[in-house]
Amino acid sequence: MQITLSEPEAALRELGLTETEARIYCQLVRAGASTGYRIAKEISKAAPNVYAALDALANRGAVVSDGAEPKVYRAVPPPELMASLQREFDQKRRAADSALSKVLADTPDDRVYTLKSLSQAFAKAEAIVASATDILLFDLGPGPFEQLRPALEAAAARGCTVAGNAYRPTGPTAFLAVVPPGADAIQARWPGDQFTIVADACEYLVALVSRDGTALRHGVWSDSAYLSCLQHSGLAAEIRLNALDPSDRHAELALTRAFPRGLQQLIGPEPIRDI
Q: Could you tell me which residues are beta bridge partners of residue 165?
């Protein structure tokens, strides 16, 4: 028979607890300290399964027990459980990251890959920003801009040239954020928040976020040096035009002046002369 879980139980299942563990923990939160035998009766589970689940919960820091026989179990407060699960996740993530780094083959290609979710798009964008060493260009609607702003600030702080289009006044920034002429009209006409990042002319992401900021309508990513150089050139020209600076102080964004990694991949290691 399939058991329908309550909302708290379902939430704990999403965090990695088994169905029995989630039901036991919630029962202890609701009813207070109890023995394993009583819990088994209250949630209609076999006692051996309940005791096994209680041991697992104790190992995860979700419950504590006294030293008596029979043991009495008590749930730790939910904030303590969340902190314990976070530490467990961080430990597993570090172990997985270390293991995967040993087998990673970082081989760029000329394909364009589709992104399927908003969380995937932001994770990829943050990774692209973190990898930038030379020039980082962006075209970001208000929602994506605010979410990526700390990463952009961090890139500028480590010496990367960061510049782009933002569609609302941003206040002071450590990088160039240009509000294009007619930004309000552009936002009203465009079917969502634009989301473009180009790093070092060797990697780019282009996406469209829904107006309410909850979904990814379109999204592609590529580490093709050729395509990234094209994206860089187009976006650099647009940023410079929007800046409307007669002295063209931002000419260093153009690939006729700059020599980021993607351009090096295309033409070799020797710098080209200014055009």
A: 139, 178
Are the C-beta atoms of 198 and 221 separated by less than 8 Å?
no
Q: Among 51, 77, 103, identify where a domain stops.
A: 77
Question: Measured between alpha carbons, how far is 42 from 96 in angstroms, rounded to an integer?
Answer: 38
The answer on 55 and 167 residing in a single domain is no
- How many domains does the chain fold into? 2
Which residue range(s) make up the domain with 257? 113-267
Residue 142 neighbours by CB distance under 10 Å: 15
Residues 6+ apart with CB under 8 A from 130: 151, 154, 155
Q: Are 43 and 24 in contact (CB under 8 A)?
A: yes
All residues at 6 or more sequence positions from 149 whose CB lies less than 8 Å from its CB, including other chains: 170, 173
Look up the pTM and report it: 0.68
Cα 253 → chain centroid: 27
Residue 241: predicted pLDDT = 87
User: Are residue 159 and residue 238 in the same domain, yes or no?
Assistant: yes
Q: CA dist 168 to 22, 76, 110, 137, 145, Å? A: 45, 46, 34, 17, 9
Q: How many CB atoms lie within 10 A of CB 119?
A: 10
State how far the Cα of 197 lies from the Cα of 209, in Å rounded to an integer.
14
**Around 70, how many Cα atoms within 13 Å sit in the side-chain half-sphere?**
11
The number of C-alpha atoms within 13 Å of 157 and in the hemisphere containing its C-beta is: 8
What are the backbone dihedrals phi and psi of residue 83, each rounded to the nearest 5 degrees, phi first? -65, -40
Q: What are 229-269's pLDDT values in tens digits? A: 999 999 999 998 888 765 566 667 766 567 787 878 777 76
Cα–Cα distance measured from residue 132 to residue 153, given in angstroms and rounded to the nearest whole number = 12
Q: Residue 45: helix, strand or coil by DSSP?
A: coil
